[in-house]
Design brief:
By secondary structure, the protein is α/β, with parallel strands linked by helices. It is 29% helix and 19% strand. A 6-stranded mixed beta sheet has the order 7-4-6-5-10-11, with helices on one face.
Length: 208
């Protein structure tokens, strides 16, 4: 367990965590409002660890964090104009956009839906971690599936902490809801989960 400054995390800690992720490790990290579980989203073995740690059904897709919009090229088949508008308006931030997944994306991430949810995180530790990892990472909450997320490390289940390879403790987070999840493949876009970004704000951003 390593304490990190929430706004200016030490590069050594971030690179150590990224190295673990690159070698099938799992890292607890501050995702914004809640703590999350990071693993290499391109490695099926690492992805399976996330499902095992969370007791999560493999029929439930995993959301992914990326560092920049250019990372979408290897993960999605198409980026529509509405998607570009929303990315410009709300990334980095609390909006997860659901795209058609590229063929190379693991079915473990999509749960066989053919779709993948992605966002650029706004928390400085999360942004530094996904950049250092050099590729997409999982952004699912650090909790047992079906249980509330945690804004403090002390609230995390002990077994979850023991199962992780590293914990980046950035102190108490703001808590609240996770990201809003929006299916951008649908026309019009459809809210899958209401979260930090109100749908009215999304609608205004897409207005002609």
């Amino acid at each position: 367990m390593i304490r990190v400054h929430p706004d200016h995390p030490a590069p050594a800690a971030i690179h150590r965590a990224a190295a673990l992720i690159q070698n099938q490790g799992v890292v607890v990290f501050p995702a914004q409002c809640l703590y999350g579980l990071a693993a290499d989203a391109r490695d099926p073995s690492a992805i399976k660890k996330i499902f095992h740690i969370k007791h999560r059904p493999e029929t439930n897709p995993l959301l992914i964090l990326i560092h920049s919009p250019t990372d979408l090229e290897e993960l999605v088949t198409h980026i529509s104009e509405p998607a570009k508008t929303l990315m410009q308006a709300f990334w980095p931030g609390g909006l997860t956009l659901v795209f058609e997944a590229a063929p190379r994306v693991s079915d473990l991430l999509t749960a066989g839906t053919g779709k993948i949810g992605l966002r650029i995180p706004s928390h400085p530790v999360a942004r530094a971690l996904v950049k250092a990892a050099g590729g997409p990472i999982t952004g699912t909450s650090a909790n047992r599936s079906g249980s509330p997320g945690c804004s403090r490390i002390s609230d995390l289940p002990r077994k979850l902490i023991q199962a992780a390879d590293m914990v980046l403790d950035a102190g108490t987070l703001k808590g609240g809801t996770g990201s809003t999840i929006l299916d951008i493949v649908c026309d019009p876009p459809r809210v899958i989960r209401q979260g930090r970004i109100p749908f009215d704000s999304i609608r205004q951003a897409l207005a002609p």
